[in-house]
Amino acid sequence: MENAQKIIIVVIVFYLIKPCLTQNKSYNDIHTYNCGDYNITIINNERTFNTAIIQRLINLYSSLYPKLVDRFNRNAPKSVTVRLDPTRKSSFIAVAYGNTINISTKTIRYQYRYYDILLHELMHVVQDYPATPEAKWLGEGIADYARYTYAKGNADTDWSLPDYSPTQQYNDSYGVTARFLVWLENRYNSTIIEELDVSLRTNTYTPAIWLNLTGNTVDQLWTNYSKYPILITDLSSALKMDTSYVVDR
Ligand SMILES: [Zn+2]
């Protein structure tokens, strides 16, 4: 057989089997969106994923991420990559490394309204904290504070802060710490979240920061919180029930 004929046969065979090869390749559906100085790339690795959720993620990023950057860290990345990952274990929800976020498609596929988990992860991108014990419990609390505060406009989000219970501690992290922070912001210091955030990023956090910012140690604050944990948003109904309460300062 002539070499030219061999080449033609190889090419024909390749094109016959190409659809099979393509089908076996991992799915990589890439969406990019630019919004002024900001941009987001979403890499969807699940072929059957609902594209309406991708649009929600893009909308959430473009409307809220610049607000997080403006408020907390103007040196935060202006470019974020989000991978929608179907391969991780079932306990995996989402994680941020630098300006790259991985979100489990299992989580937001079946909890459709849980898409605002992206807000929590975007706050981690803004935080850019060095790894310290406080960056873990307080950092997660601040990330859930951001999710709570900025997702309020998303009326369909299927997530809320946990109610107070006596078994909780201020360093339980996530929603427990976030609710405590909302309470502190309303009652003691309107810029306490920014102050705590900077101290974690610059690795200058010490327990004295609570005393400096509120006049109370964190243990005293938690005791006060446990006596009357109602949030200011619930205050009008709370005052009808109990007008005797005065916050200890
Ligand atoms: Zn987190």
From TrEMBL:
The keyword Electron transport does not apply. It comes from Didymodactylos carnosus. The keyword Signal applies. Keywords: Signal. Residues 1-22 form the signal peptide. InterPro entries: Uncharacterised_BSP. This is Secretory protein. It holds the Pfam family BSP.
